[in-house]
Amino acid sequence: MDLGISGKRALVCASSKGLGLGCAEALAEAGVNLVMNARGAEALEASAQAIRDAYGVNVVTVAADVTTPEGQQKVLEAAEGVDILVTNAGGPPPGLWTDWDREDFIKALDANMLTPIALIKALVPGMIERGWGRVVNITSVSVKSPVPVLGLSNAARAGLTGYVAGTARQVAGKGVIMNNLQPGLHATDRAEALDGGAAKAQGISVEDAKKQRCATIPAGRYGTRQEFGATCAFMCSQHAGFMVGQNILLDGGATNTTM
């Protein structure tokens, strides 16, 4: 399928690896030029060069922590005039509800709620002026089905989801389509860290912990960054113009829900 976005330009955050990289790769395959951001310069440039070589698109890299004001300024300077925004940031550490104090919540809100909002506020007005834009926020399955050990993520990402629900409906008539993409378990560093934590807590091997978690997924496996990226690219396409303020769950059927 021709996604109809060849020649567009996208900012993809946290895109040196994992789900962000999957989104950058899929957009590049569709002919989209990229601004890629991550904190680690070496991994970021390596991923960017691989995309340049594979798809022949223009890729600008910005090594910065986008959750800080300084990092946001650097990213926004490079991303001025983009047509597509994919927000993404690593999730806060797991724990129990008794473990966190105010500063822990502030950090989680900065990374997983306030940073995406800042990028939306900075870049969507330009999209409105040009009459076309796409925003995809990578959130989490925990928004729909809270994960007890991910209370910081549950709270911050739910806050972003509420903000997007109202904002998406205000900008849709101006050609800007905004939605959220909710990953379940995918084969990323985050999944490995969670597997490691489960293995330590239960006194079992990481491999056995992964098998236990895969058994809870009807698809019987973790998702891949490639299929996640393909879903994101469709949400950024010309064909997604009637999808407004939605939360697209990509979890292999793990969340047992009718709606």
From TrEMBL:
Which of the seven top EC classes does this enzyme belong to?
oxidoreductase
Give the PANTHER family listed for this entry: 3-OXOACYL-(ACYL-CARRIER-PROTEIN) REDUCTASE, NADPH-DEPENDENT REDUCTASE BACG
Q: What is the name of the gene encoding this protein?
A: fabG_10
Q: Does the keyword Cell wall biogenesis/degradation apply?
A: no
Write one Pfam family the protein is assigned to.
Answer: adh_short_C2
- EC number, as in UniProt: 1.1.1.100
The protein in question is named 3-oxoacyl-[acyl-carrier-protein] reductase FabG
GO molecular function, a single term? 3-oxoacyl-[acyl-carrier-protein] reductase (NADPH) activity
UniProt organism field? Leisingera aquaemixtae
Q: What family is this protein classified in?
A: Belongs to the short-chain dehydrogenases/reductases (SDR) family.
| Protein's UniProt keywords contain Acyltransferase | no
In terms of InterPro entries, this protein maps to: NAD(P)-bd_dom_sf, SDR, SDR_fam
Keyword vocabulary terms for this entry: Oxidoreductase
